């Protein structure tokens, strides 16, 4: 029988682990960075229009980070995130502007197309046994060509005014596109942490051999992961189309680095078996703060990419050093150490990590 004291002890243990997690660190960095920018701008950064603009352009980084995380959870990489997002945005814009397709139908078609591309990518990886890095690299090249075929050198801006109005809508200074990204993050967290299918994804990424012995098809999980990644990219493309004054062949061109940076900085392991939804959202917030600081202080954009890349490399190296330390400690004690997992509730959701899904 669980007593009140036992529950209190468990609660304190959970809070203690959270206080030492990557998520807590990112939360503190986010709050400190936001306050610092507000002070540096003499309070202008705290005003309604600035808050609205900041959150409006935060939606897409959150969604592409979650899309990459969906692939990473089974040990896969999706290099086609940016190309797929740009292709989907241009496809949605062309359907509305050139073909007169109603906005709801065009948006549904764009999201469906992105999801199908993810599905086909996953099936191709499983059927050919070619490394996902190579397959998504080829997919990226194909989609870049298709995006150029759709948009050419023009900017497509004659699409539905209703969609643009939704992209600018911000009740209580909370943009609808930002709320859409948060809703997608909440649904993804519920799927990964609570649903049986989500648990199977983590099992297949954390220990493919044990998953197969347990009756879990790792091939199906790879297909599901890429399909889910494509779906999230499709939603990101819709938020971008709604937020931007027009779409062209440059849309999605700068999505690849942020898509990796958000989940990696957020605490997701590159070799699979873990997710960190809240950490990914906070990491996207931090990167948006860096971009806002660049605009505030008129910094060279190249320094922003340099800083984000440096943080990503530092995070990967730090994780590898920590893993090596755990392995040495485990050998010294005559046992196999548990692999590191993402922060927060991910630790409960992720099984022991023995490499990415193949």
Automatic annotation (TrEMBL):
<protein>
    <recommendedName>
        <fullName>Autoinducer 2 import system permease protein LsrC</fullName>
    </recommendedName>
</protein>
<keyword id="KW-0813">Transport</keyword>
<keyword id="KW-1133">Transmembrane helix</keyword>
<feature type="transmembrane region" description="Helical">
    <location>
        <begin position="222"/>
        <end position="244"/>
    </location>
</feature>
<feature type="region of interest" description="Disordered">
    <location>
        <begin position="325"/>
        <end position="358"/>
    </location>
</feature>
<keyword id="KW-0812">Transmembrane</keyword>
<feature type="transmembrane region" description="Helical">
    <location>
        <begin position="302"/>
        <end position="321"/>
    </location>
</feature>
<feature type="transmembrane region" description="Helical">
    <location>
        <begin position="21"/>
        <end position="42"/>
    </location>
</feature>
<feature type="transmembrane region" description="Helical">
    <location>
        <begin position="103"/>
        <end position="126"/>
    </location>
</feature>
<feature type="compositionally biased region" description="Low complexity">
    <location>
        <begin position="344"/>
        <end position="358"/>
    </location>
</feature>
<keyword id="KW-1003">Cell membrane</keyword>
<dbReference type="InterPro" id="IPR001851">
    <property type="entry name" value="ABC_transp_permease"/>
</dbReference>
<dbReference type="Pfam" id="PF02653">
    <property type="entry name" value="BPD_transp_2"/>
</dbReference>
<comment type="function">
    <text>Part of the ABC transporter complex LsrABCD involved in autoinducer 2 (AI-2) import. Probably responsible for the translocation of the substrate across the membrane.</text>
</comment>
<feature type="transmembrane region" description="Helical">
    <location>
        <begin position="264"/>
        <end position="290"/>
    </location>
</feature>
<comment type="subunit">
    <text>The complex is composed of two ATP-binding proteins (LsrA), two transmembrane proteins (LsrC and LsrD) and a solute-binding protein (LsrB).</text>
</comment>
<dbReference type="GO" id="GO:0022857">
    <property type="term" value="F:transmembrane transporter activity"/>
</dbReference>
<feature type="transmembrane region" description="Helical">
    <location>
        <begin position="79"/>
        <end position="97"/>
    </location>
</feature>
<feature type="transmembrane region" description="Helical">
    <location>
        <begin position="54"/>
        <end position="72"/>
    </location>
</feature>
<keyword id="KW-0472">Membrane</keyword>
<keyword id="KW-0997">Cell inner membrane</keyword>
<feature type="transmembrane region" description="Helical">
    <location>
        <begin position="133"/>
        <end position="152"/>
    </location>
</feature>
<feature type="transmembrane region" description="Helical">
    <location>
        <begin position="172"/>
        <end position="193"/>
    </location>
</feature>
<dbReference type="GO" id="GO:0005886">
    <property type="term" value="C:plasma membrane"/>
</dbReference>
């Amino acid at each position: 029988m669980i007593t009140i004291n036992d529950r209190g002890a468990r609660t304190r243990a959970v809070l203690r682990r959270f206080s030492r997690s990557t998520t807590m660190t990112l939360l503190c960095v986010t709050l400190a960075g936001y306050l610092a920018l507000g002070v540096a701008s003499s309070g202008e950064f705290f005003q309604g229009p600035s808050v609205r603009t900041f959150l409006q352009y935060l939606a897409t980084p959150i969604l592409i980070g979650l899309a990459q995380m969906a692939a990473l959870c089974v040990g896969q990489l999706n290099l086609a995130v940016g190309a797929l997002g740009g292709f989907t945005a241009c496809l949605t814009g062309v359907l509305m502007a050139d073909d007169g397709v109603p906005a709801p139908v065009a948006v549904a078609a764009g999201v469906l197309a992105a999801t199908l591309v993810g599905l086909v990518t996953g099936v191709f990886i499983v059927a050919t046994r070619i490394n996902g890095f190579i397959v998504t690299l080829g997919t990226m090249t194909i989609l870049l060509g298709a995006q150029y075929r759709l948009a050419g050198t023009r900017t497509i801006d004659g699409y539905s005014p209703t969609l643009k109005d939704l992209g600018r809508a911000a009740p209580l200074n909370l943009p609808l596109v930002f709320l859409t990204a948060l809703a997608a993050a909440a649904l993804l967290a519920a799927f990964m942490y609570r649903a049986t299918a989500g648990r199977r994804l983590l099992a297949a990424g954390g220990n493919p051999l044990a998953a197969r012995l347990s009756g879990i098809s790792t091939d199906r999980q790879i297909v599901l992961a890429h399909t889910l990644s494509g779906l999230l990219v499709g939603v990101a493309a819709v938020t971008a189309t709604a937020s931007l004054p027009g779409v062209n062949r440059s849309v999605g061109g700068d999505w690849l680095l942020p898509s990796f940076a958000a989940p990696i900085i957020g605490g997701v392991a590159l070799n699979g078996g873990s997710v960190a939804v809240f950490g990914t959202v906070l990491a996207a917030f931090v990167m948006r703060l860096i971009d806002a600081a660049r605009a505030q202080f008129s910094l060279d954009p190249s320094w922003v990419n340099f800083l984000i890349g440096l943080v990503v490399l530092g995070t990967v190296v730090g994780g590898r050093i920590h893993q090596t330390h755990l392995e040495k400690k485990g050998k010294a004690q005559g046992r196999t150490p548990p692999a590191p997992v993402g922060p927060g509730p991910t630790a409960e959701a992720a099984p022991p990590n023995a490499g990415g899904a193949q």
